[in-house]
Amino acid sequence: MKKPLFPARAAAIAAAVPSPSSPLRPAALAVSLALAFAAAPAAHAQDAPVLLAQNQRVPSLGETVVAATRTPQPLADLVADVSVLDREAIENSGATGLADVLARLPGVEMVRNGGPGSATSLYLRGAETRFTAVYIDGVRMDSQSTGGAPWEAIPLAVIDRIEVLRGPAGAVYGSDAIGGVVQIFTRRGEAGTAPYVGVGVGSQGTYKAEAGVSGATGAVDYAVGLARETSQGFNARTVATQNPDKDGYRRTSGNARVGLQIDAVHRLEGTLVASEMNSGYDTLPLGNDDRNLHRMHALGLNWAAKWSPQYTTRMSVTDSRDRYETRPSVYLSDTRLRGYLFQNEWRQGSHLVTAALERREDHLENAPIDRKRSQDALALGYGFNAGGHTLQFNVRHDSDSEFGGQNTGSAAYGYAITPQWRATASVGTSFRAPTLYQRFSEYGLASLKPEEGRNAEVGLRWAEGAGTFSAVAYRNRVKNLIVFGGAGGCPSNFGCYASTARAKYDGVTLSGSYKVAGVQLRGSVDFQNPRDEDTGRLLARRSKRHGTLGADTQIAGWTLGTEVQASGRRFDTAANTTVLGGYTLVNLYASTRIARDVTLLARVDNLADKDYQLARTYATAGRTFYAGLKWAPQ
Asked: Which residues are bridge partners to 381 per DSSP?
């Protein structure tokens, strides 16, 4: 039989769109709720709508984010449910992979079949991994084979800031944003010169090294960086029939960002993120040193113009690539994406009007597939904020070269009940076009329909000083859900994709932070019910409850903290026949400045050496230790 889909990625992808090789399968209140969480919570924290990660600073409500509407907005004005992670939080996490950091935020679950270099899926509010739109410095990342961003390929070392929008945003971003949006940003140079060098060592023969410099002089600002990571890893499989070797990885990554302020009106900027990773995985026959070879890049060129105090424009041309290859097994998949965006913003007092023209081009080479498609879109938005009232309306029309027109829209309202309390409500629609693999592989059907979502949510938020609380309830229903079923109209007798299922993603997210007696407490808990509406069964690899709890304090120049991550039981298959047990992980971390410009970070993850699985027969790391030094002149 012909080898189907990705040999190393199939198991992790199965829960999202199963491959032919693996069949369907006030603040104190928030902390108290997290403590009461029976399965035990996991580590996060959030401000007005923004969650803090470990000992991250409390973001100012005047700080701006772009994930909600694709335009800068103060946190205090947001109606959407957004979390922000800055560079300090990312570094203090001690994490190796991007997904590990995001999994500590509210509403996010991660599944990985092995170590950090293995195939990774991320579920935002329980939605399929392909239902999260991902951008790096405005460059869209996606795979037209598996669907969704290649999480394991995006290097964490080059990231300066992450914004996570929970909830659909199809009226702003078009296809993909059914569950939410993740916006990733690299460093941007500021006045002066700021070099840095970092090294780290950890369990399982893990080594990290990074170096870079950022700055600005005259009209030019710049930021460049390089990073190298290696690890011997651990045996990714728990079954005797698989290779008992260690499945480590090595990755080299880099980033560059250069801006030119031509005059008071015009600014040009170019960005590049690139990564090359070689990681191990296990398959048959025994004795093979099976390797994943994963390359990615995100390249963007932007021109921003401020024509008047009211009117600004931005034009972008972007290009991204996700190239995945296996050896000695012969498999190659290459996704190329090209994007063009012309964004207009008109601000007048309390009003903001936006209009955007966008074109997206997708290309997949996955022998014998060599296919292209395009989408042209017009998006309009209106925002109002005054007198405690916030309104946001968005509409968008996408014209697909193969499916024709697709309309999406959203409406949101926020009201400041008091200076501390704020209530929000929103509704919105979204869609995701089938991947080129789902349509044109031997398991595909060209007649597959776009997946369509309809979401409604309400929220209540409180913020005062360093204390925050947030409660959000949502319901997102998706029709034409693409699943892998039995033999049908495709050439394969093994089975075919079909857009016949329906899913419902209901849930409540509670989060908060509070400082008492010099100790910063943070917590979040998610109660969710992601189900197949036709069968009534839970969707694979998603728990009904998961959460985090963390605390840190300052003692004698040290920042000391602990965090707990927990998840209830899940089912490994769509049939709900194989149970993955719940788990609770305890992590410890400490950091201090050992010299004027040198910082020491130490972490112990999975302190109790908990044995658990995110995917059946795939191992996870036991107790691990990491220590790092970073030199960055102040």
From this structure: 354, 394
Tokens of 448: 């597959």
Phi-psi region for residue 29, left (φ > 0), alpha (ψ -120 to 50) or beta? alpha
| Average pLDDT over all residues of the chain | 89
pTM: 0.91
DSSP 239-308: STTS--S-EEEEEEEEEEEEEEE-SSSEEEEEEEEEEEEEEE---SSTT---EEEEEEEEEEEEEEEE-S
Q: Which whole number is the average pLDDT over 154-181? A: 96
Strand-strand pairing, 579-580 and 570-571: antiparallel
Radius of gyration, CA atoms only, the chain: 23
d(CA 127, CA 541): 11
Whether cis (ω within 30° of 0) applies to the bond prior to 285 is: yes
DSSP track, 312-375: EEEEEEEEEEEEEEEETTTEEEEEEEEEEEEEEEEEETTEEEEEEEEEEEEEEEETTEEEEEEE
Q: Can you tell me whether residue 223 is helix, strand or coil? A: strand
As a whole number of angstroms, the distance between CA 302 and CA 316 comes to: 4
Strands (E), 485-582: 497-516, 519-532, 545-555, 558-567, 570-571, 579-580
Average of per-residue pLDDT across 145-150: 93
d(CA 265, CA 137): 21
Q: What pairs with residue 277 in β-bridges?
A: 251, 294
Contact 359, 140 (CB under 8 A): no
The answer to whether the CB of 438 falls within 8 A of the CB of 483 is no
> 107: phi > 0 → left, psi -120 to 50 → alpha, else beta; which?
left
Cis peptide preceding 328, ω within 30 of 0: yes
* Angle at alpha carbon of residue 162, lines to 156 and 164, rounded to 5°: 125
What is the SS3 string spanning 55-77?
CCCCCCCCCEECCCCCCCEEHHH
Tokens at residue 165, please?
A: 């929008």
Cα 471–Cα 472–Cα 474 angle in degrees, nearest 5: 155
pLDDT band at 97 (very low <50, low <70, confident <90, very high): confident
